[in-house]
Amino acid sequence: MEFTAREDVEAPIAYVFAQVTDFAAFERQALRRGAEVRRRDGMARHGIGSAWDIAFKFRGKDRQLRAEITGFDLPNSYRVSLTSAGLEGGLTVDLVSLSRERTRLTVTVAVEARSIGARLLLQSLRLARGNLNKRLAARVADYAVQVQDRYVRSV
To answer: What pTM did the predictor assign?
Structure first.
């Protein structure tokens, strides 16, 4: 199952890439939402091999997720491999420079079931697919506006 959202940002690709790879900010955001985040690697910089263990509640159950950067193409994209009990997937963030001051941000989330319980969970998500696509698109649009606002303030 795959979800995709696309948004244009009024900022140069290098700036947008710096923002979408600010993993410390994403860690803080997850912590504020009640998740537990623990960095697994000792790397000083983020890149291929950076990994996190994330614990959170979803649909009333405690969930464990392992995220690891498996692809890093500066300043165009990165890929994060996601593994949970019975689920595997990935998050891909792609950037395309439309002009010197405009960048297209595309976020793709793909999930596959590896167990019967996970298949049941995915089936329920399939029923809500339209709503989930809208929620992802709204989050990406909101994030794009935040990046754009930070860029305008920094110039």
So the answer is: 0.92
Close Cβ partners of 128 (under 8 Å, ≥ 6 residues apart): none
Give the per-residue pLDDT at 43. Answer: 81
DSSP structure string for 25-45: HHHHHHHHTT-EEEE----SS
Confidence of residue 59 (pLDDT cuts 50, 70, 90): confident
Torsions phi, psi of 42, nearest 5? Answer: -110, 20
Rounded distance between C-alpha atoms, residue 61 and residue 64, angstroms: 10
Question: What are the backbone dihedrals phi and psi of residue 110, each rounded to the nearest 5 degrees, phi first?
Answer: -120, 135
Mean residue pLDDT of the chain comes to: 95
Start-end of H helices in 4-128: 13-20, 23-32, 116-127
Strand duo 36-39 + 77-84: pairing:
unpaired
φ/ψ (deg, to 5) at 137: -60, -40
Domain annotation for the chain: domains and CATH numbers: 2-154 (3.30.530.20)
d(CA 61, CA 97) in angstroms, rounded, equals: 41
**Confidence (pLDDT) at 102:** 98
Res 21 pLDDT > 90:
yes
